[in-house]
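REQUEST ID: PR-0412
SUBMITTED BY: lab tech R.K.
PRIORITY: routine
TASK: structure prediction, single protein chain
INPUT:
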Amino acid sequence: MNPPNLVFLILINLLFVSPSIFAKNYKYDLVVFGASASGIIAAVEASRHDSHQMTIAVVAPEPYIGGMVAGGLGNTDIGDSKVIGGLALEFFHQVGQKYGNSNPQWRFEPHVASVVFNEMLKASGVDLYLECYLSEGPNAIVKQGTSIQTITTEGPTGSHTFTAAMFIDASYEGTLMAAAGISYFVGREGSKDFNESYAGYRGPGGNDNNGMDFSVKVSPYYDDGNLIPRVQPAPKTNIGDGDDLVQAYNFRLCVTRNKTNKVPFPKPPDYDPSDFIIASRYAYAIIQQLHKTPRFGNYAALGELPNGKFDMNNNGPVSTDLIGENKDYPNADRATRKAIWAKHYYWQAGLLYYLSNDPSIPIALRTEVSEYGLCQDEFVETENWPWQLYVREARKMTSDFIFSEKDVISEKTKPDTIGMGSYPIDSHNAQRFPTPDGNVHNEGDMYMSSKGTFQMPYRILTPKKSEATNLLVTVCVSSTHIGYGPLRLEPQYMILGQAAGLAVAEAHYYNVAVQDVNITDIQNKLRTENAILEL
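STATUS: complete
OUTPUT:
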């Protein structure tokens, strides 16, 4: 294991490298921006329509492909598996085959997902350009009217210009979409904006998933009255008001207790144990108020994966999510995103190091956490730490149709359905602040039933026709924060990616705007490819 500072530098420089001086020009029929699972599926789908004979490239800022699916999220958020069909199901079947399983494999190791995505992409004949960041200069995107003509990227291989007839933005941040002048929104809409009962600021005690809030009293203050780290000042907001906050991010670590494959949790650069005092206060509150022994499960969820590994996720009021410190990320430039990425690394690596080493942590908890470590055979190029930050929500496109709470709960069917969802309305916390009675409160988490399956309409992929006619957006789709909750799962991103890949192939072949494709033809073709449009 390299020293922790070297681990950090490898990751941060790999993800946010400066451009070199070389420049090249490329021309394709379709450019997919973003190597997320959604982007890979979109490119593969477009490539399978041989009659259209499209030349296709995936252009991505990421150093590897697969997004969160290959970046640590191996414990798939499924909902009702009956809604997962088409290329998404094909992916999970291929993962199952790697384990000698004839059924779809919903829980898998990150490196297996990476292998399958690479095999799918290689078989498709799609060209791949990694570590290509959209230029932050004035000519990053050139448009002619409503048609995007070129995008310019920069990175370790130089400055590249990609000319294409069609574009798909499959990035988690909506980077291409925003640069192309497409309308979007960041934050939480107010409850009155779209008549959403769960929208906006929820207030103290307003969480619907109370396991992610404090069930014990934890003081947010030092003796001098100042706030301890990771607690923000209380907002001056009314219940139901909108704001500019986004739900918390984290890394989905792949961990193990296998001593022959375990790497100790790294100590992050500039580690200061006082930054994690909220974790020890929570531990002693469990002991003193609940008369229980704090366990690792109070701080993290461990989803079991094959071969003795676990997908570590947020669980409990003090966990791997860095709450309330990401609101600038969606609109940030690359340097600011680099700093926010580093903050998340510091919090999560530091928390795990603190829990497993600091003498202020009860010995039973310290011993239990120390039994776990990073998997030595995962993310080997980045010192066993995933490169992909779990950006649960960033920009959300604002189109002519905006998917909202009613489309999940009551108005479930859509004439332009291109796939289905089933997951609950799910959001992680957005902020942490003191309450008037001197406690700490996490605000924003919810996990509300979708009341069954629902259809996802094609309209959430299309920008306003006045803004772009050759672009589809498959991750930062047109929705409210509440509507986005059950859309933001990787299987749904993949389902939307397949539909987008087919739609741009059709739009290119018939030389029409993406808003004017024949949706009935697309639906019929998706059904022949085993996509699930209705149940």
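NOTES: The chain has two domains: 17-187+394-427+451-528, 210-382.
REVIEWED BY: pending
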